[in-house]
Amino acid sequence: MAHGRRARAHAEGGHENSERWLITYADLITLLMVFFVVLYSMSKADTEKFQRISLSLEKAFNVDVLTATDAVSAGGDQSGALVVSMSQESTGASDAVVAEASRIRAQLETITTEGPAPDVAVIATKEGVVVRISGSFLFDSGRAELKPAAIPILDQLSKDLRGMSNDVRVDGHTDNIPVDSPRYATNWELSTARAVTVARFLAEIGQVPASRLGATGYGEFHPLGPNDTREQRALNRRVEIRILSGSTAGAPSGVAPSLESPPSLFGEPS
User: Fold this and answer.
1) What distance, in Å, lies between the first and last C-alpha atoms of the chain?
2) Cα separation of 255 and 253, whole Å?
3) Quick one: 47 exposed, middle or buried, by C-beta within 10 A (0-12, 13-18, 19+)?
4) Residue 172 in this model has a pLDDT that exceeds 50
């Protein structure tokens, strides 16, 4: 009889253990539900408030907030052929300028880039051909030394410019966030230094005759659009290489004065 009771107790105990997995399963379902509720609440964050905080941080540190996050979300290695946009200003560029802009665009699109593709545009204007390159691709924040990734584009442009007789003006532009650097007092100095750096690359490394080159810094005073958002400010930070047509060639107006201690093209000397 005692043996029978032990057998029944064992059987009951075995039945109880076989259903304990339901408790663990229920706990897991509850945790998953809480996890997705938290994710949903995070996705509904106050974007306007976040943009205000982002702008305050950018003004305080003169950097782009979430630049690193954007790079991660964009993916790792995104190497491939450069995609160059092209447009024509409504001021009436000549057919020759439009054809030249198309040729330069085709040459630039043969370049293979590593990482996120830069914002490059070729514009046919009445003044000539403008090659617009995003400043964040060429330079680090608050700096005027070329990034290594910028060299293939400038090298290809140098090859094109060597075969021309046109004068070339390099224009530097920034956004409206005050520069935070002991080297540059205002965005005027920073934009001028960046324009000079690109012009020096074209002359010293690209072998474009220096007599055909000029450099101008406009600071934040010639934006493409408002500086209200991070994306708009990124568009306004740019360098424009202007290949002047025959009617506008000559000594470019507003040429930046030579610097007593011009910045190194690729960073501080070792």
Assistant:
1) 93
2) 6
3) exposed
4) yes
Burial, 55: exposed, middle or buried (Cβ in 10 Å; 0-12, 13-18, 19+)?
middle
Give 54-61's long-range contacts (Cβ < 8 A, gap of 24+).
Answer: 54/230, 55/230, 58/177, 58/230, 58/233, 59/177, 59/178, 61/180
77-244, what's its fold? 60s Ribosomal Protein L30; Chain: A; (3.30.1330)
Residue 260 CB contacts under 8 Å (≥ 6 apart), including other chains: none
Q: Which residue has the tokens 């007789």?
A: 165
Boundaries of every domain in the chain: 2-43, 77-244
- Helix or strand run (H / E) with residue 229: none
Amino acid at 119: D
Q: Is the pTM of this model over 0.70?
A: no
Q: Provide the 8-state DSSP code for 184.
A: -
Answer left, alpha or beta for residue 128, where phi above 0 means left and psi between -120 and 50 means alpha: left
Q: Using one digit for the tens of pLDDT, what is the confidence trace for 216-237? A: 999 999 999 999 999 999 999 9
User: Taking a C-beta distance cutoff of 8 angstroms, is the pair 97, 245 a contact?
Assistant: yes
